[in-house]
From TrEMBL, chain A:
Belongs to the ABC transporter superfamily. Residues 9-257 form the ABC transporter domain. PANTHER family: DIPEPTIDE TRANSPORT ATP-BINDING PROTEIN DPPD, OLIGOPEPTIDE TRANSPORT ATP-BINDING PROTEIN APPD. Coiled coil: none annotated. It is found in: Cell inner membrane. This is Peptide/nickel transport system ATP-binding protein. GO terms for molecular function: ATP binding. Keywords: ATP-binding, Cell membrane, Membrane, Nucleotide-binding, Transport. InterPro entries: AAA+_ATPase, ABC_Ni/Peptide_Import, ABC_transporter-like_ATP-bd, ABC_transporter-like_CS, Oligopep_ABC_C, P-loop_NTPase.
Length: 334, 304
């Protein structure tokens, strides 16, 4: 069953749709993620990042359904697993961090009880043994006074503290893969760095495959090995983090870079991408980004970009881009 | 790195206060202090009432069933503190014993309705849109429109009066408001982050219902169950008044009211005493429910 030469997670041509919506939320997404690797999924709100993460867990919001494609995790076909085995996978082998850590903790039960849940469900530990592990985990994620904190309720914790608790709960099942869905977006800037460092430390220690979902390119630069940029439900650019951040190919990635504060604008202005991506999915033909794209007009490609959608084309070092402008540029260079 | 970690821990520590450990008694005290005054008053009255009713057989001054036709309709005296009724039975003794039946029936009915209704409502709310949800909610719609007194009259006519008949007939209708409320609250909880977090951690459906859904919706349901308790007290009283509940010569507040009707003008206390008893009992549970509800509306901030 186990294919040793295959990455831990393989997503092939994933399609996710909601009934009543004409266009799929995720349209033909393919990704791989290996042990110990950090893959950043970048894109603006509504581009399908979180839906990708929830598809992996098979926990799409009600109505949403995976309409095509395959997800293999450690050689197992995730989409065809029976519910009981899927529950063993969740928390046991895949874990997840969320954007609003405090909302993710049950206000009526103690921190210790919630961290202990996966221990008792997946590791079959008794109450006593689970409590011992909980204290170890709380210490691991850098919570001072674990014995006191374990007895707290969620409203007695700060945001950063709650995210550490979530991390402890996520790690308690001893997973192989961690999905972090904007884990620092709701936190103070000072706490963000601590949480990122924690994620990175645990990733190294446990050789965790990490899927980092974010729209913060500074976070990507700090942690990611590889970056995949999503727009309107599909990947427009993917490659090693260094290559994508230093020489972004796709006009959308370039625009994202300009908007981020990583690269200061020489005129001291805050930039934005004109238009919005909310209806981009409903375009029936052409590149989904073309209504907002500056490169299309610059290269005199508007009619081509409107008519047909480009494919993901690789360059030398595994850096793939979905753009006509990039393609024609390469053709003329060659 | 070492300095880094230490400063990080210090920063994290200073961000929050460390809540002191509390004993169960202290937590109970804090809980009570945080309630509305109606809750505390209601609790005091209800506890006093229940203790009195439990101890009643041992503290009654006279046998509540013994008649003394010579001393019938006598006004309050040193011998009979509240006087005697039309058959010369001691009013105080009958008053002390007379609430046992009604309160017991109402209590059992509410507990059963609460348990059945909450469970059905939560399950319906978790599988919303499913066949079970659709069927149970339509059943609730139908049952909720039938007055429970009518069902009780119907069942008593078939099976005769008694504890079981009354409890069954009141529960058959009584669970429906609980189911509806529990389903509504569950729907609101379904979209909460901690339910998603539990699913992501691989918790099974029944585990999520028992450990995360029910603890989060139990407060408002408890508040309503006290309000329903008061309602049931009066319903059971009404049934006894109609002769469908407690059978003579056993004493019952509502039955005493019915018996006192012809003698109101001669001895008003015959009617005032049992009437007040029913009123105070119903008021106490309603106050408890009201006090709980006020607090649970603003998210239970009075709780620790």
């Amino acid at each position: 069953m186990n294919k040793r030469d295959e990455p831990l997670l393989v997503i092939e041509d994933l399609k996710v749709a909601f009934p009543g919506q004409s266009a799929p939320v995720i349209d033909g997404l393919s990704l791989t993620l290996d042990r110990g690797e950090v893959l950043a999924l970048v894109g603006e709100s509504g581009s399908g990042k979180s839906m990708t993460a929830l598809s992996l867990m098979r926990l799409l919001p009600s109505g949403g359904a995976i309409t095509g494609g395959r997800i293999r995790f450690d050689g197992e076909d995730v989409l065809s697993l029976p519910d009981r085995q899927m529950n063993r996978l969740r928390g046991g082998r895949m874990a997840m961090l969320f954007q609003q850590p405090q909302a993710m903790l049950d206000p009526t039960s103690r921190v210790s009880a919630q961290i202990a849940e996966p221990l008792r469900l997946h590791r079959g530990l008794g109450r006593r043994a689970a409590m011992g592990r909980v204290l170890d985990l709380l210490r691991d994620v850098g919570i001072p006074d674990p014995a006191v904190r374990a007895r707290c309720f969620s409203h007695e914790l700060s945001g950063g503290m709650a995210q550490r608790v979530m991390m402890a709960a996520a790690l308690s099942g001893d997973p192989d893969m961690l999905i972090a869905d904007e884990p620092t977006t709701a936190l103070d800037v000072t706490v963000q760095a601590q949480i990122l460092r924690l994620i990175d430390e645990e990733r190294r220690k446990r050789n965790l495959a990490t899927l980092l979902i974010t729209h913060d390119l500074a976070v990507v630069a700090a942690l990611a090995d590889r970056v995949a940029v999503m727009y309107a439900g599909r990947i427009v650019e993917e490659g090693p983090a260094k290559a994508v951040l230093e020489s972004p190919q796709h006009p959308y990635t370039q625009a994202l870079m300009r908007c981020s504060l990583l690269v200061p604008d020489p005129h001291g202005q805050l930039l934005s991408i004109p238009g919005s991506g909310t209806h981009a999915r409903e375009l029936t033909c052409g590149c989904r980004f073309h209504p907002r794209c500056s490169a299309a007009s610059q290269h005199g490609l508007v009619s081509r970009c409107m008519r047909s959608e480009p494919a993901l084309k690789p360059d030398a070092d595994g850096h793939v881009t979905r753009c006509w402008a990039v393609e024609t540029e390469k053709e003329t260079a060659a | 790195m070492r300095i880094d970690n230490a400063s990080q821990a210090a920063a994290a520590g200073s961000l929050l206060h460390v809540p002191p450990r509390r004993t169960a008694a202290r937590r109970l005290w804090r809980f009570l202090r945080g309630r509305h005054w109606t809750f505390r008053t209601g609790i005091v009255i209800l506890v006093a009432l229940v203790v009195t009713l439990i101890l009643a057989p041992w503290i009654v001054p006279h046998d509540p069933a013994v008649q003394n036709l010579i001393a019938r309709l006598s006004p309050p005296s040193a011998e009979h503190w509240l006087g005697t009724d039309h058959l010369g039975r001691d009013l105080l003794s009958r008053l002390l014993v007379g609430g046992r039946f009604t309160v017991t029936i109402a209590m059992i009915t509410v507990i059963l309705s609460f348990a059945i209704g909450t469970l059905i409502g939560v399950v319906a709310g978790r599988v919303v849109g499913g066949l079970f949800d659709e069927i149970t909610m339509r059943v609730v719609d139908v049952l909720i429109s039938i007055p429970d007194v009518v069902v009780a009259i119907f069942l008593v006519a078939i099976f005769g009066p008694g504890y079981l008949t009354l409890i069954a007939s009141l529960t058959v209708i009584g669970w429906t408001p609980f189911a509806r409320l529990a389903r509504g609250l569950t729907l609101a909880i379904n979209s909460q982050g901690y339910i998603q977090a539990a699913e992501v951690l691989g918790c099974s459906r029944s585990f999520i219902v028992l450990r995360h859904v029910i603890p989060n919706i139990i407060r408002p349901i408890a508040a309503v169950s006290f309000l329903r308790f008061g309602h049931k007290l009066i319903t059971v009283g009404a049934l006894s008044f109609l002769g469908l509940g407690v059978q003579p010569p056993a004493a019952d507040w509502a039955l005493m009211l019915a018996d006192a009707q012809p003698y109101v003008e001669r001895l008003p206390i015959l009617m005032i005493a049992p009437g007040l008893a029913i009123f105070v009992a119903a008021l106490s549970v309603t106050w408890i429910g009201h006090g709980l509800e006020i607090e649970s509306r603003d998210g239970g901030s009075g709780d620790e």
